[in-house]
Specification:
Distance between the termini: 37 Å
CATH topology: Hypothetical upf0131 protein ytfp
Helix content: 10-25%
Structural class: alpha+beta
Number of helices: 3
CATH architecture: Roll
CATH class: Alpha Beta
Largest sheet: 6 strands, mixed
Number of domains: 1
Strand content: 35-45%
Length: 135
Amino acid sequence: MLYFAYGSNLNHYQMKNIRCYGSKYLKNHFLKDYKLIFCHPNELNKFGYANIIKKKGSKVSGAIWEITKEHEKILDSYEQFPDIYQKKNFNLGGKKIMFYIMDKYFIKDPPKSYIDTINKGYEDCNIDLRIKYRF
């Protein structure tokens, strides 16, 4: 199956060696009419994590990965599906691509280490973008 990753799951080491051993990076992709934000479902939580929201005219940098059903179960657990993140799909070249999205959240700044992981993922995927946040 195909999975669109954004946030820390762009990081090749994390995806291939920690989360989804044996997953295969296929290519980078820009998801149109979505915007990257950082948030958390618990208002009291100090830090936020990557999420995307619909925003016409925006685009989210990401990666298309080939994953197995076992990988999907691992990601479901990591993303706390269905309690925190929900699954959505889009079509690309006639193929269904799954991604995760959080519907209920509070905007929060991400921790610097998390941004570093994402930026390494952009580098891994040859995406010319770095996220800069004030800490």
